[in-house]
Amino acid sequence: MKSAHPKKQRIAQQRPTFMYLLDLVLIAWIIEAVDQFFLAGQLDRFGIHPRQAFGLLGIPIMPWLHGGFGHLSSNTVPFLTLGYIMLKSEGRRFYYSSAIIILLGGLGTWLIGGTGEVHIGASGLIYGYFGYVMTRAIIESKPLWLITGILVAVFYGSMIFGVLPQGQIPVSWEGHLTGMLAGIWLGRRHKGLSSE
Asked: Taking all residues of the chain, what is their mean pLDDT, rounded to a whole number?
């Protein structure tokens, strides 16, 4: 049996880098620019529609759609910072782990979201990263995780209030809550695992 080409093996074994996160952010900004300048925000209707069959299509699409540049800007920095911590801790599992958070958080949003609502934005994924990082920081017995958890709590601890209903403010607290729960579940599953 012939072995795979050495160059292809190296590519397959490469760990994702910070540039990967920047590429994802760039994609989100390009999509939002196209939506705002050419489609008058029409892409937003492809988000998650709770308990509608059509709304299930929004689960993998939700993180890439935003309600304007302000919404996207507010998600960019926490995505890069928490995403980088997640990337360093998960290594090549980062792709799989992010997909699991998107799937579980999106499905949870679809189940508990309000009727007639459309849920968009990367905040569900960001809350998933937050839940994952804080869970690992609490249950791991390693100083690095403890320090990381303290820093994340200092800079992003107020995110916890985002999982509560926001009254008339159009914020997807359901996406925040289910995304964070997905991250907590994943963090517990990956207790003790080193990055690959």
From this structure: 92
For residue 20, the surrounding DSSP H or E stretch is helix 18-38
Cβ atoms < 10 Å from Cβ of 76: 17
112 in helix, strand or coil?
A: helix
Sign, Cα dihedral of 148, 90, 19, 43: negative
Task: Please give the Cα distance from 108 to 181 (Å, whole number).
Answer: 9
The pair of structure tokens assigned to 162 is 């985002």
What integer is the mean pLDDT of 119-130? 98
Q: What is the CA radius of gyration of the chain?
A: 17
CA 96/CA 83 separation, integer angstroms: 13
Identify residue 14 by its one-letter amino acid code: Q
| Residue 193: φ, ψ to 5° | -80, 135
Tell the residue number behind the tokens 């690992």, with chain if given. 136
Q: Is residue 177 scored above 90 in pLDDT?
A: yes
- Domain spanning 6-189, CATH class: mainly alpha
32-45 pLDDT tens trace: 999 999 999 999 99
Alpha carbon 170 to its chain centroid, in Å, reads 19
Q: How many CB atoms lie within 10 A of CB 16?
A: 19
pLDDT at 51: 97
